[in-house]
UniProtKB/TrEMBL annotation:
Transmembrane domains' residue ranges: none
Highest taxon, organism lineage: Bacteria
Keyword terms of this UniProt record: Signal
Protein name per its UniProtKB record: DUF1684 domain-containing protein
Signal peptide: 1-21
InterPro entries reported in the protein's UniProt record: DUF1684
Organism field: Spirosoma agri
Pfam entry (one): DUF1684
Length: 293
């Protein structure tokens, strides 16, 4: 009897050690993931260096550091006059003034077409500034980055909830082929996006679901929950999940829930959670509120 008792004690102790190692490994995995997330935010292509979003009017839009321009770049990082950006029925072209020192890669630019483009938008540079053209609906804008942006210099990291494996939740994938989700961005523009399916999961015994955008193999969610009122960003958060396995299951890891770009800069045009993804539960995991944007 004593031998059985000792064996049971040993097995329980071993299980406890293995569980601790498993929890520690998972915590380190999430910490490494979050460190990469912060590193990506600080990259040249990250969100922290956004310095302006300028909607183009039809016709000529002058640009440079002078407030006499249609598009006013940061005066301490730009020459007063750089040239003009012309919008003509969906076509966007650039013309610079002599000696403007505007570059596309290493090549100085005099004139070129900025939109339409194939693949990625063409990025132009002048001193610490970088900019390119984006399209939102039937409107066009210049998105400006500043590699010396105060948002980048003042960034000190993002607060998160304590990491807990309990928030890595198994979820059932339910296909919804042909379904469209109405996504409204912060400018009020609405887009109808394809939804490959939804994930059904439980928190504290209650069932919830999130409708995905993206693809079956890479599910993307824009969601709101009860923490948005006080602890997390008021406009909801983002979360990605891998596609389902052969049995139709995957995992929602809310420890990887992130703030949208609008939490870090006033110059982003973020989507907001669709009505299908407003959860009546507090998801106390992932990134907390950042800044006042």
């Amino acid at each position: 009897m004593k031998t059985q008792s000792n064996l049971l004690f040993f097995l329980l102790a071993l299980a406890s050690v293995l569980a601790f190692k498993s929890d520690s490994a998972y915590e380190e995995e999430i910490k490494a993931w979050h460190a990469k997330r912060v590193k990506d935010l600080k990259k040249e292509e990250g969100w922290l260096n956004l310095a302006g979003l300028f909607w183009l009017k039809e016709g000529v839009n002058t640009f440079g550091g002078s407030d006499k321009n249609s598009i006013v770049f940061p005066a301490d990082h730009s020459d007063a006059q750089l040239g003009k950006i012309v919008l003509d029925k969906g076509k966007v072209t650039l013309e610079t003034i002599a000696g403007a020192q505007v570059y596309a890669g290493d090549e100085p630019v005099m004139s070129l077409v900025l939109f339409p483009y194939t693949g990625k938008p063409l990025v132009l540079s002048h001193k610490s500034l970088r900019w390119f053209v984006i399209q939102r609906g039937n409107k066009f804008a210049v998105r400006l980055r500043d590699l010396e942006s105060p948002y980048l210099k003042e960034f000190k990291g993002i607060d998160t909830y304590p990491i807990s494996a309990d928030w890595r939740i198994k979820a059932k994938f339910v296909p919804t082929a042909g379904k469209k989700i109405s996504i409204t961005d912060i400018t009020g523009r609405v887009s109808e996006q394809d939804s490959p399916g939804k994930l059904v999961f439980s928190v504290n015994g209650n069932e919830y679901s999130l409708d995905a955008t993206g693809t079956v193999n890479h599910l993307h969610f824009i969601f709101a929950d009860q923490t948005n009122r006080h602890e997390t960003y008021g406009g909801g958060r983002f979360l990605d999940a891998p596609g389902p396995d052969a049995d139709g299951y995957t995992y929602l890891d809310f420890n990887k829930a992130t703030n949208p770009p609008c939490a870090f800069t006033p110059y982003a045009t973020c989507p907001t959670p669709p009505k299908e993804n407003k959860l009546a539960v507090a998801i106390a995991a992932g990134e907390k509120r950042y800044g006042d944007h």
